[in-house]
Design brief:
single chain; 157 residues; alpha+beta; Lipocalin; 8 strands; globular
């Protein structure tokens, strides 16, 4: 009886598993980028430890947002993803439009400053990013002047 139950469960799992794999692959087109990356602004030091990498990543990719470090601010600039299109070896992002502080009509009500323009990546527009996959652990932002160097994935400890 026990052997029959194990056999039935194994067959059921084998029949369902391909569907699970297909569902997992049908996620976000940029899922391969999820996580923390360092470099880009500067060459990555040889032998950088995981702890050093994770303590100050340059770019962080999530499902809905791309965050980037800024040299002149301690906080990360966040860009909300409108579309992500992946093809062989690269992914293209379009972000919500950057806020132009000159177009804002803030009168300093409550002492609040007008919103700052969202930082781009130095590509042809502040609202796009092109990611080229160099390997499983290395990417580049071709044509983006603010990121002239490749980025390396921060791996676990």
């Amino acid at each position: 009886m026990r052997t029959c139950l194990v056999l039935v469960l194994s067959l059921l799992l084998a029949a369902v598993a391909p569907g699970w794999a297909a569902h997992a692959q049908s996620g976000a087109p940029h899922a391969w980028l999820f996580g923390s990356w360092t470099g880009g602004l500067f060459p990555v030091p040889a032998g950088m430890s995981a702890q050093a990498c994770l303590s100050a990543p340059t770019v962080i990719f999530t499902r809905d947002v791309v965050m980037r470090a800024q040299l002149t601010d301690v906080s990360y600039a966040q860009r909300v993803i409108v579309t992500a299109r992946a093809s062989e070896g690269h992914t293209d992002f379009a972000f919500t439009p950057a806020v132009d502080p000159l177009e804002q009509t803030s009168n300093g009500l409550l002492g609040l400053d007008p919103p700052k323009a969202a930082a781009g990546f130095g590509c042809e527009s502040d609202d796009v990013l092109h990611v080229q996959r160099l390997s499983d652990t290395e990417i580049a932002f071709p044509g983006c002047r603010e990121f002239p160097e490749p980025l390396v994935r921060c791996t676990g400890r």
